[in-house]
Amino acid sequence: MDFKGVARVTRSFKIKIGDLRAEGVPAVLVAATGVVLAAAIGRALAKGADRLPETLRAARELAQTLRREDLPRLPGI
Q: pTM score, two decimals?
């Protein structure tokens, strides 16, 4: 197996995301980690998709409750 070609490809691999910069093997590891994380998030969303509307509804109701201006206030605050 010829590893010179692989070494050349990994050297040319570069990632720049904001202040994060990686080149070579670390860039490949960052990219692989991103793919694995995206797959995990997608799987978690697919698994909990039937509960997602209920969760979003509860979160919206909580936000509306916290935003209301007629909430009772403690004296002196």
A: 0.53
